[in-house]
Amino acid sequence: MSSLEGKYLYAIVADAGDQEFGKIGMEGGRVYSITEGPVSAIVSDFGQPRIRPERRNIASHQAVLKALMADRTPLPIKFGVVSGSIKDIKKILSRNKNAFLEQLRRVEGKVEMGLRVSWDVPNIFEYFIAVYPELRSARDRLFGTHREPSQEDKIEVGRMFDRLLQEAREEHASKVEDVLTPCCFEVKRNTTRDERDVMKLACLVGRKESQTSFEAAVLEAAKLFDNNFAFDFNGPWAPHNFVELELA
């Protein structure tokens, strides 16, 4: 692959014609559109078959998406997709045209907002011990004796804690979603990876006035919780969680 042959893909947009976006791409590369029919790919020249997921590269990818969002809603391509020549890009656009158009209609005039709610406590296990009597009783029964608790005892308490953790997440997420749903087109739950995470929600909202409504709804939902919970919302982003692209 020559230095100018490869193309790094950032997004798909509705017909952009021949458009330039400046030297804001990977390694300061020129970002421009390649159009085939009613859809365009936003790319920059890239001579390597792969790209490392380093912070600066991810930042460049996000910077291009942010620039595109100034006046449109792009279909974001996941980080790291490198294609061949302009001819190859046009084949992708032609073969996936109908899927691209359907997804573009789905997110037109919308952006993604994120909401993370977490337990803001020094020790999550001790917090659950204080809140859930059944877990406290099991802990006292199995660990309060003079004997050393067995591995089975530890597993039993661990399983109870995990069950209560999942039940609490479900209960709290449903409560928050009830408040957010009226101001969102869609709400999606993402996987919680940190034990302290109560929920991580992706919300598809209108580009302008709905963002204000979303922020107001988050503040309203936060009133349903005490100071042991922290609410953190972010965005607007390109609608990563609401675009499903399987490129042919």
The domain count comes to 2
Low-pLDDT runs = none
Give the distance, in angstroms, between the N- and C-terminal Cα atoms. 21 Å
Residue share in β-strands? 25-35%
Order of helices and strands: EEEEHEEHHEHHHEEHE
Radius of gyration: 23 Å
Number of strands: 10
Tell me what the CATH architecture of the largest domain is. Answer: 2-Layer Sandwich
CATH topology of the largest domain: Alpha-Beta Plaits
Helix content: 25-40%
Number of helices: 7
Instruction: Give the class-level CATH name of the largest domain.
Output: Alpha Beta
Q: SS-based structural class?
A: alpha+beta
What about the largest sheet? 6 strands, antiparallel
Globally, the shape reads elongated
Mean pLDDT, as a whole number? 91
Structure, described:
The chain contains seven helices and ten strands. It is α+β, with helices and mostly antiparallel strands and 248 residues long. Strands 1, 2, 3, 4, 5 and 6 form a six-stranded antiparallel β-sheet that branches. A four-stranded antiparallel β-sheet has the order 8-9-7-10, with helices on one face. α5 (133-143) packs antiparallel against α6. The mean pLDDT is 91.
Short description:
With 248 residues, the protein is an alpha+beta fold. The protein has two domains: 7-108; 111-242, Alpha-Beta Plaits, CATH 3.30.70.
Keywords:
25% strand, elongated, Alpha-Beta Plaits, 2 domains, alpha+beta, 10 strands, four-stranded antiparallel β-sheet, 248 residues, six-stranded antiparallel β-sheet
